[in-house]
Amino acid sequence: MATLSLIRRGSPLSDPAEQRRRLAPRPGEKPFDESLAESGLRPLTATGIQVLQVNVGKRCNQTCRHCHVDAGPDRREVMTPETMELCLDVLARTAIPTLDVTGGAPEMNPHFRWLVAAARSLGRHVIDRCNLTILLAPGFTDLPEFLAQHRVEVVASLPCYLKENTDAQRGDGVFEKSVEALRRLNAAGYGRTDTGLTLTLVYNPVGPSLPPPQARLEAAYREQLRDRFGIEFTRLFTITNMPISRFLDDLLESGRYEAYVAKLVAAYNPAAAAGVMCRTTLSVNWDGTLSDCDFNQMLGLGLGPGLPRHVRDFDPGALASRRVVTGQHCYGCTAGSGSGCQGATVT
């Protein structure tokens, strides 16, 4: 594993409250809510729930330097079948069309396959946010066929089409394993136009910079992966690194925090803010608690006053039009072309 700057369990930045304190506006830095107000978007409100995003646990076979979930092999937080049942009940009682399953490596939850099959039986579109290397791990090598059988969309992290950049962010040997995993997904039908099996790749910068234009980068990925490895994929999403958790730790340790946040603030885009994912997505933590997005979830920011705290108390009417909880970290989703779990918000 490459040498990484990680938040240690018990260190100050493993505490969400300490992260929120570090993220408070500094002297001269425009508060995010002020930018929203100038854009006519304050208060930021949800426009419905199109995606129920469920974090089924923080256990992962990788330890990545940018990980905002602080996931890794030593984590033990795992969603129980009982909490999964509550999520499935929400889908059964509403018209929410998409279940977005994330982690950690979500596949490492022992009940992952049951959740996927149950959601598909309800007629829901299911997304698996996959780190690719899990598909080569013992006990998981049949996942491409399982996912294809249930017609699950695979959203796969590949920070770069160059080995040195990917390994610098995700660990030594990750790029070669990722290429092999993509080949196995292609063999199962993913990324081919005649199968309808969607393979979405995800790029995020290796360091403190904004992603390049999504369409241009997708074209470069397609050329490089096809010519060098014979790999096909459906589309590419670009996602900005959020200054929270491990990436926040790395920024502070390297003295680049203020410059990075200044870059995000300067690149604030009202059009990107109007399309942020929290307006159409609701996030469920591994313990069933609710947040507007998975970034808020990791900062210990629950929903606003008077709203349900837990998925067991799900109220479709109140949640679909809720006021979104925002903070300085939200500049990460509203800078440049915008960023979210569905990629750039401005094309």
Give the second-level CATH assignment, the architecture: Alpha-Beta Barrel
Q: Over the alpha carbons, how many angstroms does the gyration radius reach?
A: 19 Å
Number of strands: 8
Classified in CATH, the superfamily is Aldolase class I
Element-by-element helix/strand order: HHEHEHEHEHHEHEHHHEEHHH
The oligomeric state is single chain
| Order of the strands making up the biggest sheet | 6-5-4-3-2-1-7-8
Global morphology: globular
Which CATH first-tier class would you pick? Alpha Beta
Q: How would you state the average pLDDT, rounded?
A: 91
Query: How much helix is in the residues?
Result: 25-40%
Distance between the termini: 36 Å
Describe this structure in words.
This protein is of the alpha/beta class and 347 residues long. The chain has a single domain, classed as TIM Barrel, CATH 3.20.20. The chain is 35% helix and 10% strand. It has 14 helices and eight strands. An eight-stranded mixed beta sheet has the order 6-5-4-3-2-1-7-8. Strand 2 (98-102), helix 4 and strand 3 (125-130) form a beta-alpha-beta unit. The chain is globular.
Topology:
Elements: H1 16-22, H2 32-38, E1 51-55, H3 81-93, E2 98-102, H4 112-121, E3 125-130, H5 143-149, E4 153-157, H6 163-170, H7 174-187, E5 199-203, H8 214-229, E6 235-238, H9 245-254, H10 257-266, H11 270-274, E7 281-284, E8 290-291, H12 294-298, H13 316-320, H14 331-334
